[in-house]
Design brief:
Elements: E1 6-11, H1 16-30, E2 34-41, H2 54-72, E3 76-82, H3 91-104, E4 108-112, H4 122-139, E5 156-160, E6 167-170, H5 173-184, H6 190-194, H7 202-220, E7 228-234
Bound molecules: zinc ion.
């Protein structure tokens, strides 16, 4: 697949984009693609500490997300700011995601698969629905006609962590390193998501986390003999 000129990746939480398609975005950014990220929720459920200051957590996670975007080579992060765990693909949210698609004008949109089976987290399902439904709105002038930005029809939609895989993006060592570095930017998630503590074992825990991510990419890319991120590709938008 050719490198798009502009791409927009949409994730439910800070770190979802890095897990789902970080290597692909890094590869494209290095080849000149203008990459934007859109994070839908504020990440305010992302702590095991019941006494955590949630306003601080939201600020921290936005800052971590900006660092991660820089590690991937993305130019900008947009935040929708919905409450973590309470995302709905409603009219208000669709209008805003539609506006961002029209503003960024991506050739390729990447997002969660709303049709993935046996998925527990409601935000991932809602984020997938919101992505798909906002593309439908963005391409047609009769949706949200009051918006200043002109309609925009992306050429491709790539769903990450897909229910059905029909497309792989191969990663080289540089892409892989950028994905891992971007994931590590999410410092507040080391303990809960990545199994990396503060103790003397942190170094080996960090390597174990990296090995797990690489093993998954190797499994996905077994048929193409290299690490790869798997997608469901839709081109009839
Ligand atoms: Zn998530």
């Amino acid at each position: 697949m050719s490198v798009p000129r502009r791409a927009l990746a949409i994730g439910a939480h800070p770190d979802d984009i890095e897990f789902g398609c970080g290597g692909t975005l890094a590869k494209w950014a290095r080849a000149g693609c203008v990459v934007h990220l859109l994070v839908l929720t504020d990440g305010s459920k992302g702590s095991w500490d019941a006494a955590a200051d949630l306003a601080d957590l939201v600020t921290t996670r936005q800052s971590e997300q900006r660092d991660a975007a820089a590690a991937l080579g993305a130019v900008e992060v947009h935040f929708l700011g919905e409450v973590d765990g309470e995302l709905v693909a409603g009219e208000v949210q669709r209008a805003e995601v539609c506006r961002i698609i029209r503003l960024v004008r991506p050739e390729v949109v990447l997002g969660h698969d709303p049709w993935k089976r046996y998925r527990l987290h409601p935000d991932h399902r809602e984020a997938g629905r919101l992505t798909v439904e906002s593309i439908v709105a963005a391409r047609d002038p009769h949706f949200f006609p009051g918006q200043q930005e002109a309609p925009c029809r992306p050429e491709r939609l790539m769903l990450f962590e897909p229910d059905e895989i029909d497309h792989l993006e191969l990663l080289d060592a540089v892409d892989l390193r950028a994905k891992l570095d971007a994931l590590h930017c999410h410092r507040s998630q080391w303990r809960s998501t990545m199994g990396i503590g503060d103790g003397p074992d942190a170094g080996s825990q960090r390597l174990a986390f990296e090995a797990k991510v690489i093993a998954e990419l190797d499994r996905a890319g077994a048929d193409v003999s290299g690490p790869a991120e798997p997608f469901k590709l839709m081109t009839d938008l």
